[in-house]
Design goal:
Blueprint lengths: L7 H25 L21 E2 L1 H9 L1 H12 L4 H24 L7 E2 H25 L12 H25 L23 H16 L4 H29 L16
Antiparallel strand pairs: 1-2
Protein name: Putative 3-oxo-5-alpha-steroid 4-dehydrogenase
GO molecular function: oxidoreductase activity, acting on the CH-CH group of donors
Membrane topology: Multi-pass membrane protein
Length: 265
C-alpha cells in the first residue's frame, strides 16, 4: 500500500520539481551534445581530464545503469502489487536486464573506457528516471492504472511496438558485438538488419521501444519524459557517430545510410 513506502511525503512533494529539473537538464544536454561529445565509447579516446578519472567502460556501464534494474523492484515491493503493476515492472526489467547485464557481459573485454563524470551523471539519470516512472505509476497516479491492460487497444499496441523495438535492439547489439573478436580494438562497418539504412540501428530501435512504452502507459508523464530524454541524448549522438563513420571509412561507407531514422535523417 502507498502508506507503507518510506519517505512518502518528500517523494510526493518533490515529484513536480524533479520532473521539471530533469527535463531542463535534458534540454541543456541536448544542446551541449551538438558541440561536445560525451567521452565514452568511440569518443573516449583523447578526452580531457576535466571529465575525471577513467574506468573500464564495460564495468562502469554496469555500475552507472544499475539503478534501472535494482530500484524498480523496491517500488513494486511497497506498491499494491497488482497484475498491472507487475506487468509494468516485467517489461521494464526485460529491457534493462538485457541492456545493463546481459549485453555488457557478452561484450568483448576491449570495450572503451568511460569517465567518472559520465558514470555519476548516468547513475543520477537512472535513479531519477525510475523514480519518475515507478513512483508515479505505483503511487502518485496509481488510480489511472486500474484497468485491464489486455482489454485496452492502446496498451496492446504500445506493448507490441515496445516488443518490436526490444527485439530490434537485441539484434542490433548482437551485430555490433560480433564485429570484433576478443582483443581486437579496431572498428568495422556494421552490416545487416537496419544497419543497411541507418548508422545507429540500436539507437533507432530504443526510440521505438520507449515510444511503445508511452502508449503502453497511456501517455503517462514519466514515460513521455523518458522518451523525450532518450531523444535528447541519442539524436545528437547519432549525428556525431554518423559523421565519425564517414570520416573513418570514407568512400567505403555506404552512402545510402542515414544517421538515425532510415530513409529520413
Amino acid at each position: 500500500m502507498t502508506d507503507q513506502i518510506p519517505f512518502e511525503l518528500p517523494f510526493e512533494s518533490a515529484y513536480p520539481v524533479v520532473l521539471k529539473v530533469f527535463l531542463a537538464v535534458g534540454f541543456v544536454s541536448f544542446i551541449s551534445l551538438f558541440f561536445v561529445q560525451a567521452p565514452y565509447g568511440r569518443f573516449s579516446e583523447g578526452s580531457s581530464k576535466i571529465w575525471g578519472p577513467k574506468f573500464s567502460g564495460k564495468y562502469g556501464f554496469l555500475v552507472q545503469e544499475s539503478p534501472s534494474v535494482f530500484a524498480p523492484p523496491i517500488y513494486y515491493y511497497f506498491s499494491d502489487r497488482t497484475i498491472t503493476q507487475l506487468i509494468f515492472l516485467i517489461i521494464w526489467e526485460i529491457h534493462y536486464v538485457n541492456r545493463v547485464i546481459i549485453q555488457p557481459l557478452l561484450q568483448p573485454t576491449n570495450k572503451k573506457n568511460t569517465s567518472a563524470f559520465i558514470m555519476l551523471f548516468a547513475f543520477s539519470f537512472q535513479l531519477t528516471s525510475t523514480y519518475l516512472n515507478f513512483y508515479g505509476i505505483y503511487f502518485r497516479e496509481k488510480e489511472k492504472f486500474v484497468f485491464d491492460l489486455f482489454k485496452d487497444p492502446v496498451a496492446i499496441i504500445g506493448l507490441l511496438i515496445f516488443s518490436i523495438g526490444l527485439i530490434g535492439n537485441i539484434i542490433s547489439d548482437t551485430i555490433l558485438r560480433k564485429l570484433r573478436k576478443p582483443g581486437d580494438a579496431n572498428y568495422y562497418i556494421p552490416r545487416g538488419f537496419l544497419f543497411e539504412y541507418t548508422s545507429a540501428s540500436n539507437y533507432f530501435c530504443e526510440m521505438i521501444e520507449w515510444f511503445g512504452f508511452i502508449l503502453f502507459t497511456k501517455f503517462f508523464v514519466g514515460a513521455v519524459t523518458l522518451f523525450t530524454w532518450t531523444n535528447f541524448n541519442l539524436f545528437p549522438r547519432s549525428l556525431a557517430q554518423h559523421k565519425w563513420y564517414k570520416k573513418k571509412f570514407g568512400d567505403e561507407y555506404p552512402k545510402q545510410r542515414k544517421a538515425l531514422i532510415p530513409f529520413v535523417l
